[in-house]
Write a structure and sequence with these properties.
The protein has one helix spanning about 5-50. It is mainly α. Keywords: Membrane, Transmembrane, Transmembrane helix.
Length: about 50
């Protein structure tokens, strides 16, 4: 096996790992933001109830 094939393999392996991690982080961030907005909605509703 020559050096060019080894580096090509590692390049595409690294690219695949990076892509997988980027997708995982994006999905996790989406759920975190969704949870944040739900918590903000609950806090706003509690504040409205307390002021009434």
């Amino acid at each position: 096996m020559d050096w060019e094939r080894i580096w090509t393999f590692f390049f595409f392996l690294s690219l695949g790992v990076f892509t997988a991690l980027a997708v995982i982080v994006t999905i996790g961030g989406f759920f975190d933001i969704r949870s944040l907005f739900k918590d903000l909605s609950k806090a706003r509703e509690q504040q409205r109830r307390a002021s009434d």
